[in-house]
Design brief:
Blueprint (H helix, E strand, L loop, with lengths): L1 E3 L3 E3 L10 H14 L5 E5 L6 E5 L1 H12 L8 E6 L4 H13 L6 H13 L4 H8 L3 H11 L3 H9 L4 H7 L5 H10 L8 H9 L3 E2 L3 H6 L1 H6 L4 E2 L10 E2 L2 H23 L3 E4 L6 H7 L2 E2 L9 H22 L9 H19 L14 E6 L5 E3 L4 E2 L2 E6 L5 E6 L29 H19 L3 H13 L28 H11 L11 H9 L3 H15 L12 H10 L3 H4 L13 H19 L5 H12 L7 H9 L21 E2 L5 E2 L28
Parallel strand pairs: 2-4, 3-5, 9-11
Antiparallel strand pairs: 1-5, 3-4, 6-8, 7-8, 10-13, 11-12, 14-15, 16-17
């Protein structure tokens, strides 16, 4: 039956009491576009000629919004269904109408929007038709274009909407599937961890380099921007990093040339980073320490005035807080300002001597806002010294630095883990460093699951202080400095570590003082403390020994005790391995898993094509014999394994690990030849070589 809107009102028997203005506005736009698709359920009111709406309150409000904005007449007729019965019957009907309703799943929404777009509608029209924002519709369409296995997982409920949005942060199916395959073995992965892995190889829109060059210039040069439709604009990804770095380099180089001419220095070196530490190390330059500037008489007089005033303020503070006429806040601010002024006066900056200008330079760096600024310090390849006479005059001299044999270790490493497959040549130091970090992260992720072992290792590292020998952990000094910095390829281990950090009980950190935080921490449950311990020890693990290409032997023992399945958490790809080794090494890896016949199939391939082929084969995605596929899925380069070798570099058996996780050190070849710890002369023990 048709009833004028003015004769309808919401019944008290309507069970839906909550409301959402945004959702009501969306429904209002939909009803205006298509009309009312479902009748309102009403009963006769005791008020003459009135009807109470017991089911359809949202539709009633939506129609009211249409009338309020003048789209429909105030007496517009609304299709209703009249229900006869008592108030109890009306309440049951309202409950049934709301309770039995099932909303569309996100996957169904995606398919629906995709259908309308295919039928010829544009995004703006679809958004207006359903009362939604264009960004929401774009986001659902991005989800609809997920790689098929990921979308199927969303439709089946195997992954959440938030996880699907994380994968949709990129529209590149190859990247989505790479991360999806890596996270397949992760326990309860977080959306943030997935977004970090998806972002590898791209640049955020609020990165200092991006802010420096601007999106318009980047796009004009052919760069592509990947919008993250589920986050702020600052989370958009610039995927053509080479273009961004080239534009930044050109802009900073031009500014560096201008500043060089303006300052008269020997050089201005542009660095697209917030500090010049790495550039200084690579250039082999050292900071130039200028001699202190003598204090002027005016400065000395001002310092005496400041000291006198500070003494007056201190005396007022000493008298206590009972002085009603004293503004202690104002006095404290004055004290701090005077103290800062005195510090500046006591440390006057000397101008660079003119004779040094041709020997020194400065670094041009970026602020977090993308602004180019000159670092304050001067640097030189030469050793600059000075002498000051009785009158304060400075005489500067410059000497060439004496050649040294220091620096990073070089030469051909002899350790098995540093040798490329199938050759005598070592892998590059950079590749070894990256593999070392990835291998360490996998060990760290697995250590999270065994707090007892983490505790034992932590106690050992603290107690074994008889020498300065490295123990494979920085537990005494916090987190270690990784040998490979910048963008290092990631595996599922990073996601596991991030998820563990998010799951920690951090309530105790809310306290302001150390004592209060310690008391709050003691109140945690044992499981929460154990999780903190495992996490702290896991993050303390060092990637490798010192500056060389050698692992910590104790990491191999930990890996064996944990029974780390590296192959399940890390697979060699073109990016993280095969592009970084020779063609001979790639063919040698194929020979290891499939014999010479498999290697011969691809012997004529170009190196880049061979690297991609190896990635496919060792990921188990190639159509090959089953036994070869199984061998490929289990294959690892020596640098990613956790195994031990006997002292002296002779390969030995892995320690036997009992059911309770205890390693039998006597099972290692050569262990019987070692004297007892009490009988062993100081310095006689040899390191156990890690063939990893």
């Amino acid at each position: 039956m048709l009833i004028p809107f003015s004769k309808l009102y919401l019944s008290d028997a309507n069970v839906r009491k909550t409301r959402n203005d945004q959702e009501d506005a969306q429904l209002s736009a939909d009803i205006e576009a298509r009309g009312l698709l479902q009748n309102l359920l009403v009963t006769k009111s005791k008020k003459r000629g009135q009807y109470a709406v017991i089911a359809g309150g949202r539709r009633l409000r939506a129609i009211g919004m249409i009338i309020d904005r003048g789209a429909w007449a105030a007496d517009a007729e609304v299709e209703c269904k009249l229900l006869e019965g008592s108030e109890e019957t009306a309440g049951e009907a309202s409950l049934a109408e709301n309770f039995q309703r099932v909303g569309m799943s996100p996957a169904e929404e995606c398919r629906a929007f995709q259908h309308f777009i295919k039928e010829g509608s544009d995004i703006a029209a679809v958004a207006k038709r359903f009362g939604l924002t264009q960004r929401f519709v774009e986001g659902r369409l991005r989800l609809a274009n997920l790689a098929a296995p990921i979308f199927e997982a969303l439709a089946a409920g195997d992954i959440t909407l938030e996880i699907a949005k994380a994968y949709a942060a990129t529209d590149q199916h190859e990247v989505q599937m790479r991360v999806f395959d890596q996270m397949r073995h992760a326990y309860n992965p977080s959306a943030d961890a997935i977004r970090r892995m998806v972002a590898t190889g791209s640049m955020r829109g609020n990165d200092p380099i991006a802010l420096l060059i601007g999106e318009d210039a980047y796009v004009a040069a052919g760069g592509k921007v990947e919008r993250d439709l589920f986050s702020d604009a600052g989370e958009d990804r610039w995927i053509d990093i080479e273009i961004a770095h080239r534009l930044a380099s050109e802009k900073m180089e031009a500014e560096a040339q201008r500043l060089t001419a303006e300052t008269g220095l020997a050089w201005i070196s542009p660095v697209a980073a917030s500090n010049s530490w790495q550039a200084r190390s690579e250039m082999g330059v050292s900071a130039v320490r200028l001699p202190p500037m003598p204090l002027t008489e005016a400065a000395r007089a001002r310092i005496d005035e400041i000291d006198a005033r500070i003494d007056e303020i201190s005396a007022i503070f000493d008298e206590g807080d009972d002085q009603d006429d004293v503004d202690f806040g104002k006095l404290e601010a004055e004290y701090e300002a005077l103290d800062a002024e005195r510090s500046d006066l006591n440390n006057p900056v000397r101008e660079l001597p003119e004779e040094w200008r041709g020997e020194v330079g400065r670094f041009l760096v970026l602020t977090t806002r993308g602004e180019m600024v000159l670092e304050a310090d001067y640097y030189s390849e030469k050793r600059l010294s000075f002498e000051t006479d009785d009158h304060g005059n400075v005489t500067a001299t410059a000497e060439e630095p004496a050649p040294t044999s220091g620096g990073r270790a070089s030469g051909t490493p002899a350790r098995p883990e540093a040798i490329a497959p199938g050759s005598e040549k070592p892998i590059s130091a950079r590749l070894f460093d990256e593999l070392a970090v990835q291998r360490r992260n996998i060990l760290s992720a697995c250590l999270l699951g065994d707090p007892g072992l983490a505790l034992d290792f932590a106690i050992f590292a603290l107690a074994d202080n008889r020498s300065y020998e490295g123990k494979g952990t920085s537990i005494k000094a916090g987190r270690p400095s990784d040998p490979a910095t910048g963008e290092v390829p990631q595996s599922a281990a990073e996601g596991i570590l991030a998820e563990a950090e998010e799951g920690l009980d951090k309530a105790w950190q809310e306290q302001t003082s150390v004592a209060a935080r310690f008391i709050a921490f003691r109140d945690l449950e044992d499981d929460a403390k154990a999780a903190w311990l495992a996490y702290a020890v896991a993050l303390s693990l060092e990637a490798k020994k010192g500056y060389g290409s050698e692992y910590h032997p104790v990491h191999a023992v930990l890996g064996l005790m944990l029974d780390v399945d590296v192959a399940a958490l890390w697979r060699p790809t073109a990016e993280n391995f095969f592009d970084r080794v020779s063609k001979t090494s790639c063919l040698a890896a194929l020979t290891e898993v499939g014999g010479s016949d498999l290697a011969a199939r691809y012997a004529a391939s170009k190196k880049a094509d061979l690297a991609k082929t190896c990635e496919t084969i060792f990921a188990g995605k190639a159509i090959i014999e089953q036994e070869v596929k199984e061998a490929a899925l289990a294959w690892l380069p020596e640098a990613m394994k956790f195994s031990t070798a006997a002292p002296g570099g002779v390969q030995g058996a892995d320690p036997e690990v009992s059911d309770d996780g205890e390693a039998d050190i006597d099972a290692v070849d050569g262990a019987d030849a070692l004297p007892d710890a009490e009988e062993q002369p100081e310095g006689a023990a040899e390191d156990t070589t890690v063939a990893a």
